[in-house]
Structure formats: structure tokens, C-alpha cells
Amino acid sequence: MRVFALELDNARKGMQERTGYIEDLIARLPAPDLVVLPELSLCGYMASPAVWQHADEGGRAAAAWAVDMAGKYNTSIGAGYLDREDGDYYNRYLIASPQGVCGAVTKSEGEAAVFKRGSFGNTIQTPFGLVGVAICYDSRRKHFYENVKDLALTMILFPHGAPADPKKPKEEQRENDLRCGLYADSFGVPVVYVNSVGALEEMPGKMGEMMAKKGFRMNGGSRIYAAEGRPIPTEVKEAVGMEVPIHSKKRIRDIPFHGQDILPGNFFFRQFVLKPDTAAGIKAYEEMHLREGKE
């Protein structure tokens, strides 16, 4: 199977501008069987309520575009979008084939001030088998592992809009390799990590302040992890391509976790920055959502 991950320029915003840009990239790929786009690829990644202006009611526009592109280029497409459902906002990711939308997953631990959170599923049944999908931060959490550990998968997708310190590229790549490598080794299936590139815009809370101070941005780093994969050369600089064998496989070894996290991380950051930021974000989301509903 010929799989391509596309690193998108996050400076472009909104479906109207981005869909033409994305189609131009897809059209230049050499015979793709699957095109994997980053988190919130159809509107652009934004970690503040400003992204609500780009919401797709019921995901209908995202679904229609993805199916149209899949049919036009005879491929399957994974795409991230902002869904508005019953007045709430969800960070979602779908996979579409020429026959229609195969399914969608929702980010469970989305940016707290921006998206409705919950405990959501992580698999999509496709023409090429059952695919595990964890959007960005969810790929770091035990919730995803618990949802897929007893299933037979053919592939795992990790679509990201992940900012990091651009002055520490080796550290970022090392963490990505460890996390994705653990899943590739555990399940023996291809793991696709795809991230956007571009500046990090406003993010609420202490975490946003810290990232802005250090100049965090999305640095790409997309990679396909497949022991038996063969790289596919392409002139599309935004693309990472690989031909990979596709077989349905069950987990062959356990993945050790550090509490609820796949990587040990920084205890101080998690307890005194992330935890209070998340609580404040959930409260802010509910207050803004309530105000929006009254307008």
C-alpha cells in the first residue's frame, strides 16, 4: 500500500483556502493509496476559541470534500476537521474512500478551552482493515492503548498539530521515535505520524505563555514507521511516502506506561501547569459555550 503523509502549512486558515491548497498537493503525489493529513487539516490548527469560526456543522463539508477527493484521485484520505454538533465543538478526524466516509474519531483530551472533551473511541473500519487513530495528545495517553490493545489492526495513524521548541529538534524527534516506535513494535503494523508546520498562534493559560516565551512552533517531523516499508521518492516537498505491507495484526507485546502517559515526562509540568490549565480551560469552555448559546 502506497501511503503518503502531508505536512501542511498552518499559516493558511479556513476550508475555502486550504482545500484547494491540499488538493494541489494530492494531485502531484505518485499514485497514492492513502493520504494522511494532520490534525485539523481542513481548517488549520488553532488552540483558542478563535477556531470556532471555522466549525463545520455536523462535519458535512469535511465529509463531502474528502469523499470527492478520494473518488477523484482513486485513493483514501484521512483528514482532521472542527465539528460542531448540538452546539458543542469537537476535534475530529475522518477516513474516506471513493465509496464514502468510513468513519471518524474524536479527540478525547482536546485543548480544554476549545473543544468538548470525553472518552471516545479510536478505531475506523476501512476497506484496508481496522485502523487505530489517536489525535495528537491522545497518542500519548493510556486511553488510546486501552481502546486498541485487544484489537487486530492494519495501521495506526497519529495526526498532530504539535508545537515544540524549534531549538531542540533532536529531542522532539527522539520523543516521536520512541512513542511511535513502541506502537510499531507492539502491533507490528505501520504507524504514521504527521504534523503541520508553522507558527503557534495564541494558546490560553500558563502553558500557552510558556510556549510563546520559548518560541514554540509546529516543526513537522512527519514520518512513517514500518520495518518492512520502502520509501517512495516524490518531488512534493510536503510529502513523506512509503510503500508498506498491510496485514491485520494483534498486539504481540505490551507497552509499559508511566501512570496514564506513554513517556515519563516532567512531573512538575504535569502537576502544576498542565493540570490546573486543563481545569481552567474546561471551566472557560463551558462559560463561553453557555454565553454563545444565549446569543
What features would you describe in this structure?
It is a single chain. The chain is of the alpha/beta class and 295 residues long. It has one domain: Carbon-nitrogen hydrolase (Nitrilase/N-carbamoyl-D-aminoacid amidohydrolase, 4-Layer Sandwich), CATH 3.60.110.10. The chain has helices spanning 15-27, 60-73, 142-148, 169-187, 205-213, 267-294; strands at 2-6, 34-36, 56-57, 76-85, 88-97, 100-106, 123-126, 129-133, 155-159, 163-164, 191-194, 197-199, 217-219, 223-225, 230-231, 239-243. Strands 1, 2, 3, 4, 5, 6, 15 and 16 form an eight-stranded mixed β-sheet that branches. A five-stranded mixed β-sheet has the order 7-8-9-11-14, covered by helices on one side. Helix 1 packs parallel to helix 2. The longest helix has 28 residues, at 267-294. The protein is globular, with a radius of gyration of 18 Å. The model has no long low-confidence stretch (mean pLDDT 95).
